[in-house]
């Protein structure tokens, strides 16, 4: 017998509270269309059952959003009667809640009606509006009962946008979604009334519309200003949803360029095998988010002409069709062969100077150097972190972030301690911005001088013969405890030799070999200890390695080589002048100078 399904009648809370307080993992959703919170509490992967008001409110968010997606699927399938009936039910519920905003929202939130946050109302409203647009393509005869809901959703989006823009927050990611909600709700209402849509000036073209938002929220290098993979995609998806059904010729060329550039960012940072690094705040791995990336590509293909994008969008639509409500499946973030709609395939080195990222691709290693602005409330204390990936292996990834309501783990994953960065005296970096010193087609060099008072750090990453060279130089006004950190996302072995460099071996679908040495005459202690792995599961321990010296200046030198690359590295040495020599099995050598 099929399980009964009903729309919940209660307001939703804040989805980030759907996290186990003991283990920091997102809780199991259960049957989100049942309309009833799981009996006995929401399950944790480690056996906990969690039941409190915050978790119930978070589950209601997920349930209402799942219902909106389900209604959209029903409309696309032609199952009209149920879709219209449920929409009318939501219209009644939304009207009942009209007397007040959500009373349990946190003080910093822009409050919604159905949810704690107006942002969550907006995300839900986009899906509801698109459902009605699809239904109206066939008939408008039974949609009158839904019109009050659509009109109120548009008004709510406009009111919230007025508050944001009145505070000078046109660039906020909230603004992107409020504009998308206004477009979807007003388009849906016009379609249900059998009228032409007349909201372009209000929601797209005006001074607070989507186009104005994109022009201030996206930097010249193509990144959304927060420098987070998740929020970059979050804003891009909102924009593409807002433009669904828009004649591409009607979109200003500069806006199309912005959207294409945002896609290029994702294509550039993604590994060839499909990993999309979770830079700064955002989930490390989450199946519903993976489906959102696929939806983003399918939407982009409708707006941006590109043969490469056409092929990827076809796969995206196939994947989406296999997951009816966007809740099932284990998809790994991005996918092989990402789209490149605007520029030719990137070379071995790509630099984004405003966001402060550099990507280096060479001999089976995909590396990212993080040196840019902190990133506002979604930033991490991670300056000069170096992330390492194979095609499909996260050897040393950005660890991502847990659901935000877990304060302890959220602080941990934003910390310097959690990143492959540098530390001084065992303390945290200050929130700060680094600086690009230089780059060419085989190397990138960046520095930071404000992470610690009286300390300058310079990291140079260069492409060698079949290997990647990393030179991290830290100098201080006087002797300090200086540490270079390795933060593996996979199993790793570390071996000290009687003489010569420390060796590391990193495992996964591909294997990585590492050689680690330092300025001669300095005593370095390589210490391993267990620590939390990436943020999708803080209880999954990984081996952390800290190389620490008491000194006023030291260069920590590492050479990395994928097992599939060659000629094989045989030795690594650094001399007193800061010159690193890499010896190869074919008898060749290569030399790299540290940055002064």
Task: Please characterize this protein's 3D structure.
This protein has 596 residues and is of the alpha+beta class. It has helices at 53-77, 80-96, 118-136, 147-166, 173-193, 200-205, 210-217, 229-242, 253-269, 287-303, 307-321, 407-413; strands at residues 42-43, 49-50, 349-352, 357-362, 365-370, 385-389, 422-424, 435-439, 443-448, 455-463, 468-486, 492-495, 502-506, 512-518, 524-532, 541-562, 569-574, 579-584, 589-593. The strands form four sheets. Strands 7, 8, 9, 10, 11, 12, 13, 14, 15 and 16 form a ten-stranded antiparallel sheet that branches. A four-stranded antiparallel sheet has the order 3-4-5-6, with no helix packed on it. Helix 3 (118-136) runs antiparallel to helix 4, helix 5 (173-193) runs antiparallel to helix 7 and helix 8 crosses helix 10 (287-303). It is elongated.
Short description:
The protein has 596 residues and is of the alpha+beta class.
């Amino acid at each position: 017998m099929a399980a009964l399904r009903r729309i919940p009648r209660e307001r939703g809370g804040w989805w980030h509270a759907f996290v186990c307080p003991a283990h920091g993992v997102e809780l199991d959703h259960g049957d989100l269309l049942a309309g009833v919170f799981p009996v006995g509490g929401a399950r944790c992967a480690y056996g906990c059952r969690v039941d409190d008001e915050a978790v119930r409110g978070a589950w209601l968010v997920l349930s209402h959003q799942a219902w909106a997606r389900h209604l959209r699927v029903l409309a696309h399938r032609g199952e009209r009667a149920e879709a219209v009936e449920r929409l009318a039910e939501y219209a009644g519920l939304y009207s009942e809640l009209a007397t007040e905003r959500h009373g349990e929202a946190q003080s910093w939130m822009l409050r919604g009606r159905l949810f704690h946050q107006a942002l969550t109302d907006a995300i839900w409203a986009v899906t509801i509006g698109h459902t009605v647009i699809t239904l109206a393509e066939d008939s408008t005869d039974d949609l009158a009962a839904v019109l009050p809901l659509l009109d109120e959703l548009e008004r709510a989006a406009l009111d919230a946008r007025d508050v944001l823009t009145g505070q000078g927050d046109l660039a906020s990611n909230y603004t992107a979604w409020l504009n998308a909600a206004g477009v979807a709700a007003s388009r849906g209402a016009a379609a249900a009334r059998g009228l032409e849509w007349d909201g372009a000036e209000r929601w797209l073209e005006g001074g607070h519309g989507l186009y104005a938002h994109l022009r201030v929220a996206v930097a010249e290098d193509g990144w959304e200003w927060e420098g987070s993979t998740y929020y970059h995609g979050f804003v891009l998806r909102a924009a593409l949803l807002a433009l669904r059904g828009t004649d591409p010729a009607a979109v200003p060329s500069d806006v199309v360029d912005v959207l294409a550039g945002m896609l290029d960012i994702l294509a550039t940072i993604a590994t060839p095998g499909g990993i999309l690094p979770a830079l700064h705040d955002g989930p490390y791995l989450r199946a519903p988010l993976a489906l959102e990336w696929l939806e983003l590509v399918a939407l982009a293909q409708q707006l941006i002409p590109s043969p490469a994008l056409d092929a990827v969008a076809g796969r995206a639509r196939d994947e989406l069709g296999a997951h009816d409500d966007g809740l099932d499946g284990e998809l790994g973030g991005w996918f092989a062969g990402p789209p490149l709609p605007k520029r030719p395939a990137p070379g071995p080195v790509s630099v984004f100077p405003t966001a402060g990222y550099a990507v280096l691709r060479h001999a089976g290693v995909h590396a990212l150097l993080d040196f840019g602005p902190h990133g506002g409330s979604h930033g991490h204390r991670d300056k000069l972190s170096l992330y390492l990936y194979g095609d499909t292996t996260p050897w040393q990834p950005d660890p991502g972030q847990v659901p935000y309501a877990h304060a302890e783990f959220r602080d941990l994953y934003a910390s310097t301690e959690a990143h492959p960065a540098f530390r001084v005296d065992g303390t945290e970096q200050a929130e700060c911005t680094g600086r690009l010193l230089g780059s060419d087609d085989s190397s990138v060099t960046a520095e930071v001088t404000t992470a610690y008072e009286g300390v300058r750090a310079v990291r140079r990453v260069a492409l060698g013969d079949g290997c990647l060279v990393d030179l991290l130089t830290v100098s201080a006004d006087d002797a300090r405890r200086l540490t270079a950190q390795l933060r593996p996302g996979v199993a790793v072995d570390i071996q000290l030799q009687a003489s010569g460099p420390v060796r590391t071996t990193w495992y996964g679908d591909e294997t990585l070999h590492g050689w680690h040495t330092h300025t001669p005459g300095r005593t370095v202690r390589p210490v391993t200890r267990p620590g939390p792995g990436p943020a999708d599961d803080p209880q999954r321990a990984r081996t952390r390695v800290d190389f620490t010296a008491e000194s006023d200046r030291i260069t920590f030198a590492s050479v990395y080589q994928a097992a599939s690359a060659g000629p094989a590295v045989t030795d690594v040495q650094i001399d007193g002048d800061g010159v690193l020599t890499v010896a190869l099995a074919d008898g060749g050598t290569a030399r790299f100078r540290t940055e002064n």
